[in-house]
């Protein structure tokens, strides 16, 4: 969320490489916190570890860049070779206020 200015609607555009992963925090930690009751309900040992592994796998699946693009959370999943072009077009399309010391303020 820090990389997206706190939300996916604040930035002018959001793109990811196919290897991109999204989550509010590290996914392993998110599973430990978010599924604490479910994990504690299973006796410590191989069964609990298997449940934890399954939950982490699900979170990684849900946080894949393609899934985020499919749910309209990000604008596109791009080929890494296209990164420079996306950045250049994105910067060219954003509207920024001129510097307070600029004489163009009146024109703004």
Structure characteristics:
2 strands; elongated; 108 residues
Cα separation of the termini: 31 Å
* Count of beta strands: 2
Backbone structural class: mainly alpha
Round the Cα radius of gyration to an integer and report it. 20 Å
Percent range for β-strand residues: under 5%
Side-by-side strand order of the widest sheet: 1-2
Low-pLDDT parts are none
Number of domains: 1
* Rounded mean pLDDT score: 82
- Fraction of residues in helix: 40-55%
Quickly count the helices: 5
Shape call: elongated
Largest sheet: 2 strands, parallel
| SSE string | EHHHHEH
Structure description:
- This protein is mainly alpha-helical and 108 residues long.
- It has five helices and two strands, in the order βααααβα.
- It has one domain.
- The chain has a two-stranded parallel ribbon with strand order 1-2.
């Amino acid at each position: 969320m820090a990389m997206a200015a706190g939300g996916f609607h604040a930035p002018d555009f959001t793109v990811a490489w196919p290897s991109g992963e999204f989550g509010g925090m590290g996914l392993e930690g998110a599973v430990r916190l978010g599924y604490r009751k479910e994990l504690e309900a299973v006796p410590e040992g191989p069964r609990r570890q298997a449940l934890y592994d399954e939950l982490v796998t699900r979170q990684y699946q849900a946080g894949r860049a393609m899934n985020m693009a499919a749910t309209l959370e990000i604008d596109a999943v791009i080929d890494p070779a296209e990164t420079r072009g996306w950045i250049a077009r994105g910067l060219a399309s954003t509207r920024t206020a001129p510097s307070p010391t600029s004489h163009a303020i009146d024109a703004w």
